[in-house]
Amino acid sequence: MTKHFLGDTAVLTRRSLSHIVRSLDTIITTALMPIAFMLLFVYVLGGAIDTGPDSGSYVNYLLPGILIITIASGISYTGFRLFLDMKSGIFERFQSMPIARSCVLWAHVLTSMVANLISVVLTVLVALIMGFRSGAGVIAWLAVAGSLALFTLALTWIAIIPGLTAKSPDGAVAFAYPLMFLPFISSAFAPTDTMPGPVRAFAEHQPVTSIVNAIRALFAQQPVGNGIWIALGWCAGILVVAYAVAIRIHRRKIS
User: Fold this and answer.
1) Domain segments of the chain: what residues?
2) Under 8 Å CB-to-CB from 223, ≥6 apart: which residues?
3) CA 248, CA 108: separation in Å to the nearest integer?
4) Which of 46, 45, 66 is closest to 57 using CA atoms?
5) ∠ at Cα 62 (61, 68), nearest 5°?
């Protein structure tokens, strides 16, 4: 059964990736907005933002939050591509074939992981050109990559839900807008202690702040403490809930 599932998922993932290869402009487009934010904040607003004496250059401080925005921007296309598959009738054709039902969703999830990896790499390359530097070792970089991969996986399963339930293409992608807005009410662009009370309370207890702080500490070779576990806990919790809801909706759709 496992071999059957993996084989079916691999075939459908190749199909989905072929669409990505034919439209690389989509990946570039999803990376352009976060890169534009990075350019704006570093070269226009960065001089007016005090991030503390130990934070280094502003692009070093900013990059973790920009990577979160890059992922949130990219996963919106997962919902859109799934919506198009739903409306094209291909799901009904897959039901008539002897394949594992959930592999259709997993193919979209894996495609999202690959597409977002490319977008994140593009963003990091631009940050390097802008002066980003990190003395982090291989283990720290792997921890950053793992955290971002888990975050991408969690958000992708959230994207599956509107992809299955939306009534229009706009509805399939609109869910991503609040996700892209969350980093602005976090420690991504400025320390939370500069914010007024209620805003600070929200910023310090939402998942983006925990993830950004953990990645920033890893890049800066600073003690991460419990921050990394809080960040991973948020990602794992979101993933479990989103996966359960998406699978339940999918089963109702194909029943």
Assistant:
1) 2-254
2) 217
3) 17
4) 46
5) 125
Dist CA 46 CA 155 (whole Å): 28
- Please state, in angstroms and rounded to a whole number, the distance separating the CA atoms of residues 178 and 180: 5
113-126 pLDDT, tens digit each:
988 998 899 999 99
| Cβ atoms of 224 and 144 closer than 8 Å | no
Question: Which tokens belong to 81?
Answer: 């591509």
3-state DSSP of the chain: CHHHHHHHHHHHHHHHHHHHHHCHHHHHHHHHHHHHHHHHHHHHHHHHCCCCCCCCCHHHHHHHHHHHHHHHHHHHHHHHHHHHHHHHCHHHHHHCCCCCCCHHHHHHHHHHHHHHHHHHHHHHHHHHHCCCCCCCCHHHHHHHHHHHHHHHHHHHHHHHHHHHHCCCHHHHHHCHHHHHHHHHHCCCCCCHHHCCHHHHHHHHCCHHHHHHHHHHHHHCCCCCCCHHHHHHHHHHHHHHHHHHHHHHHHHHHHC
> How many other CB atoms sit within 10 Å of the CB of residue 249?
17
Show the tokens assigned to 186. Answer: 């976090």
pTM over 0.90: no
pLDDT tier for residue 255 given thresholds of 50, 70 and 90: low
pLDDT digits (tens, 9 = 90+) for 30-84: 778 889 989 998 888 777 776 766 656 889 999 999 999 999 888 888 888 888 8
Q: How far apart are CA 245 and CA 155, in angstroms?
A: 13
> pLDDT for 149-208, tens place per residue?
999 999 999 999 988 888 888 888 887 788 888 899 999 888 888 889 899 999 998 999
